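Researcher: Sequence of Barstar (barnase inhibitor) domain-containing protein follows. Predict its structure.
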Amino acid sequence: MTFPFVLLDDSTDLVIGHCTDIIGLDGTVINLAEGYHQLILKHFVFSYEFQQYILQKKESLSRYAYVGMLNKDNHTIGNYGLFIHDTIKYHKLGFPTLASDLKLNVSIHRLISAQELQIWDQWRTSLPSELNQWATYDENGRRAWLSVVKSHNNMNIATEVVDNTLDIKEDQATTFQIDGTYITSYASFFCALGEAINGPGGYYGSDFNSFIDCTYGGFGANAPFTLMWANHQVARSYLDTKAWQREIDWMRAENERLGEEDFLVEVGNRPLYHAIIENLEHQGITVILQ
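Model: Prediction complete. Tokens:
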């Protein structure tokens, strides 16, 4: 049986188990009594190693874990953190002997849209090999693409930090070319910027704060450098104050769905296009508009 999802234990790095599908990653299933999101892991199979660990340590299932996305070669290409609140004690109850649906009450850091899951399905077969594959999606689809890019990148960075045989190498290039043909929204800019720096499916921030972090190193290029922005007129036309406010409203809605406090990190008080230029230049990036 092919399993597209894996559940990983954070503290031990053990595979907890595999499943064929997960219902509730988009936040649609909620345990109203407890106030948690509920995940249903379809045809879940516990790993032998995790079973032996629980039998030895006599721990409950409650722990920090990751839902991992597996590709066709059974390698994890992205993951999402969550905390499992269930205190089931399998060392007393015994583990299921057959694949069965596992219901978990969890706190999840971010919700995963249906479009995002569809993009993962594509990446399972092959990672992006051409620029602007994200451009075929609508605004929400581009947000979903950017989320996949971020998850895939963050997992790879974490792997490199842990694995002493790998070094994070910074690109020594001093000039990068960004294709502005499809930059019509907030997420579009970061999709295009990531690919300008790191190639198809590349990541270089998903918002202003994470972009600033990237410029200090560890993500393919250190500032200062030069960014040649082709077809910048598209962004100038689309990225107005309304475009920025639309993104802020979307972020607020996502926070509300997660049950988090409403906090405003960015203030859409001017055209988004101008804010992007200001942020780039503030980080020492020379922008040449073409």
